[in-house]
Structures
1.
Amino acid sequence: MALGPDNFNLTIALDDIFCFQGDDIDDILDEASEPYLWTFMVKVDGEGFIQQGNSLVGSPIYFFGPGSHGNLGGSLTRGTRQIPESLGRWSTSLKPIPISLPASLGGQQLTAIPGTIMCAAVLMEENLTPDSAVEAAHTSVQNLIVGTVSGAISSIGLAGVAADAEAEAVIDASHGKTTSMATAAQLVIQRRLRPIQDLFAVAAPANAVVTILGNLGIDGFIGSAIDSDKPMGAFARIFSQQELAATTEMVWYWGRGTPINLSATMSNMPEWAYNIGGRAYAHHSFVRRDPPGAKRLQVSCSTKRTTKKGEKRIVGIGGHDDGNVWWMTRKDAADAILKGERSFFVLGPEGHSVEVGAVRAGSFQDQSWPDFVQTAPDQDGRNNLISLPDCDQADTVEIWY
């Protein structure tokens, strides 16, 4: 199946933890805390499930990060700590589950249940709980999630999903809203996943996790002793295929992108203790078309960014050649100029050609690079590229990768 909104790659990334005030910090001692993180992600889609008669058979796809002491890099007093990719970053794919009539009735596809992903995390504070008990508790929570998912999904009958989806569509129609069967079916599946999310995303998430771990019977892990490890907070979020398909990855030279930004407070104290941040996005973007083969090109537009001082800087240049729109990053244009592969010009205020040159802007470890493009001095007295209109997005191509 070709990549597109019905079949795409994606990334869910829990990027960082910001510590306002750790559990071991007080007004007297100001000691560093030792947070560590448990991450759990679950995917229900056409990779793990297929239709078999009147049932869905298969299993969800899981991502469980390592849950050991110190997995966030050890002690932390205040500030930001990056979450290792092995702990918080899952790159996977998402595709719907096709639902068809039985072969005896023609076998044609009726609809598809869009994919769904759930992401959850629990932030823990290390005290004196033995490593072995922490590993056992982490494994028990994984088993709890797998068991809950299996109970909610494995026995789903398609007739039941179809009936619930039809009821969903009828209710929406009574309120003047049109809902497709595919969308209604995904809402049904999301409700089946809700018990998993509710393990974490409740009004007092840290207390909920304490209850869960306590019920697991991990000796010495949860209790009233001051030296026991304890949960600091939890985060959970369910993503639908439709909302992920609508995202795009950030493109550095535009400063644009439409990822789902994740941010949640994780705290069991009156003050904010920690905040978790991250992104979720499809491997989907809009890229500029390749420039034409002509060696000399007129620049008629430019892409700029504004610095903190309010100064404009060139990010890229573009134009038209025989009706074709083209665009290049600042670096690529400068490279082409310095290698003698292309030349560029701008029409000056009085209609004369002004050459575009490249300037090497810096070096690092004895390696210099071309960083800027600018026009030669003329009557304007400025870099003519700044004065050009902004390049629009008419020259972009949508890609899924």
Note: The radius of gyration is 27 Å.
2.
Amino acid sequence: MLRPMLIVIKYGGNAMAGLSACDPLLDEIAERVRGGDQVVLVHGGGPQIDDELALRGVIPTRVAGLRVTDAQTLAVTEFILCGTVNKALVRSLARRGVAAVGVSGEDGGLLIARPIDPIDGSSLGFVGEVVRVDPRILHTLLDAGYVPVIAPLGRTADAATALNLNGDTAAGAIAGALSADAYVVLTNVERVRRRREDPESGIAHLRVAEAEAFLTDGTLDGGMQPKVRGALAALHGGVRRVMIAGAGEPAIERALQGAGTTLTV
């Protein structure tokens, strides 16, 4: 009999099935929880944030894959991630019999962050990088049988302001802090690619040194960069295996069996 696992899953906004009631990933999470696994779900919401900003006449700007976040964009980001996407996922898991609890990285000091310095001369505004993870709230929830569903926001150490965190960055830091058995990143591409536009150049196995080289030599596109950085943070934090994979059914099992890109030390 297989030993129960602690799995951290990053569910990207691009991979979500429109937050519909018929989401195979949530079915799979429910099956794993019933089978004894502990699951932490960190979600994105980039497309949903973009849609809301468009309704307000705001054109999103990104630098190195990160959303430039002024005060208005931060308010929209909190509203969509915490009030819409997070609660939709909690309700969907509840319909499947899963005791899920929605939290933000701000709650319980889970994710303490600081503003990111300007990149290429461009200020990112209220965008943060994680400086400390306090996983006590997650241990409390997991030990009580709950599935934490986490919105990727953090706060400054003095609690003066919230900060927008890249979902992959937040998820990787959380996976490392929990020393998870596996960290699974689900996205809209099947594998990390050696050549951005060539699906046939997908990589089955990627070691840390090569992944670090990809981050500096321009191999990775803007969206894949934070995914790989988060994966490396998870590995350095003690996660045994990291998988970056597509959301095809059954997504978690396929990733664990090597369908995507597996990163190891």
Note: The first strand starts at residue 6 and ends at 11.
